[in-house]
Amino acid sequence: MRRICSLILCFIFLFVLPLQAAPQMLVGVDRATIYEGESILYWITLLDTQPIDDSITPDISALTDFNVQALPKQPLNQHSIQIINGSRTENMTSRIRFAYILTPKKSGSLIIPKPNVSVKGQQLVPDSVEIGGQSLRETSFGGAIPVTVKPPNDQDLVRLKIEIDKTRLYPFQPLTVTLVVQVKGLPDKIDSGQSMNPLQVLSEPPKLTIPWANDDTSLPKGMVPQQKYSDWLNSLVVRRPQHGFAINDYTSNSFGIDDDFFRSPLSFGGMIRRTPFQFAPKPVKIQLSDLNGKETTYWEFRFSRTFMPEEIGRFSFGSVTLKGVFAAADPNTPQGVSLCDVYALASEVSVDVVDVPQANRPESYIGAFGTFDWSVDLQPRQAKVGEPMTLTLRLSGQGSTAHVKPPELSQNTEITANFKVYPPTEEVNGKSCTFTYTVRPTQEGSLVFPSLSAVFFDVEKEDFVTLQSNPITVEITETRNSHSAPVFSNSQRSFSGTLERSEKGLFANMTDPHEAVQHSVDFVRWVFIVISLFSVYGVFVFGAFVWRTCHSNPKLRRRRNASKRAKQRLTEIVTTRQKSNNQTVLFGNELQNVFFGYVADLTDGAEQGMTTKDACIKLLELGATEQTVREIRGVLETLDAARYGGFDLKTLDELAEETNLFLNRIPKELISSGNFL
After folding, report:
1. One fold for both 16-150 and 365-477?
2. d(Cα 45, Cα 58) in Å, to the nearest integer?
3. Could you tell me the maximum CA-CA distance found in the chain, to the nearest angstrom?
4. Residue 195 burial (C-beta neighbours within 10 Å; 0-12, 13-18, 19+)
5. For the chain, what are the domain ranges?
6. pTM of the model
7. What is the mean pLDDT of residues 373-378?
8. How far is residue 245's CA from residue 225's CA, in Å, rounded to a whole number?
9. Alpha carbon distance 621, 670 (integer Å)
10. What CATH architecture is 365-477?
11. Which CATH code fits 16-150?
12. What tens digit of pLDDT does each residue of 234-255 get?
């Protein structure tokens, strides 16, 4: 009896109690000490033995000291099966991770407060806090995380600022954003009057972090660059080492931009080691006052990029940071020079894109703003009553014509008194629009087509401007009667007489319907029918040939089998992992290779050397949704972290399950986008 009670207690502790475990919350940051202008990755993970309601979202409204950018949430559910003495037990762990990028609004000691999360009516308290990869079970802040934000150095070696040529503009009006970097000239002990570039003596290039020099998909919606970011950076690549700046994380063996970006000689270095690309525009020497008020030579580098806003709203260009080591004069050293660590910050700038004002807006405003010319032409200038004439209205210049609407000429009584107007065709592009009308004169004589006006909004004058065309005189003659030949004829009957103009149409002149039918044999039509039949047969034969060619094409076969091959690899990896010991790094690498191999098969490319950026860019080009690509990027970056021991096999098992979900989702998205597999 005692043995039976012991078995019952063991069963309760091993199986019943875990199923009734309370929900858990884990929070963490990737680092707790940063400089002003840098960002922190902050995450909240919810765990429960029961499914977590998908509508649950942490309340982080208390994060008032930070700008918050929410990343896509990651459901990481885990399903396990245990078989003990022939008894099968299934356990389900529901897990959701919420991630945020936090950018401090000020420097000093800040606190990331405990998030407000309620699951099943229970207010959760963090069970553990992770800071920089180190898990802390108990904290004196009750789940809050302290963060230290250092201010920029008080120095005059480097000055950083962002300039914009306009703080207020209209949609489709170009905007130029310029990062200005001013580097103090070298001390006399080094320069010796040779006017050396101050970057030339540095062993490592200073690093600039420019948010608007990243992948263009990360730009605010509605702000379109006029030059692709890879083309812009290509124009700034420095061929001589130690003469420029590193920007973001672009390195000689990073494949995140495009092939053109790596056609520079520097890409050869990527075959040997990972070296940063260096970028710099041509510098200009200027005179500025240093901290002591002394006029000093600075080298100014200006990184300019042009954007075009397509929507109304407020747009911000994020702060830029610079980190590096620079040479500074130091009389306390024998050489008179010392190396100083420098951190500089250029605060973000914002621009307001506004709509054309509603006040005093004329009814004849056609929807264009900028600076334009207006032309009106009517051809031919001589015609007969009822003959078609072509009226062309064209607005061209600098500005936006995307929302221009054609004038309602049919409502103009000066026009309809002498002409019948038909609806226009439209040809609109970014800088011009052309409307083409068909008009028919209804009167004979010397007719005057009246002057037409176009009202647009001048963005420079910030006022409405009316353009007026010149009147056009045309000569219209009466339509002559036709007596020369019958309108319709056949072998038995012919009709001759006077063909008169009728307001009801041509057939209003006929009293016998038989006269309106052509009864003769049309050999041309029969020849056309025979040729058409042979053409249809030819198209069918050609289609069959194309179908056979496609199904024998190795590239297409590889693409069609991409999903099947990726799932087979995933199954083999999971099976091998279950039979092996803890091999976190190997398992993480293999999971990454499933994605890379899948993308390589879809694009007939090489799996070796593919990176996360490379795979995500190719998936976007194939037609995958931005939401899916963002989630895949998060999984791949998480797998990158596994190389450094930041995750356990339990987490990687969940990522393997999520990988399988993506392999089912991606083909559906590619098919819906028109890229059939």
Report:
1. yes
2. 10
3. 124
4. exposed
5. 16-150, 158-353, 365-477, 554-672
6. 0.54
7. 90
8. 22
9. 10
10. Sandwich (2.60)
11. 2.60.40
12. 899 987 666 899 998 888 654 4
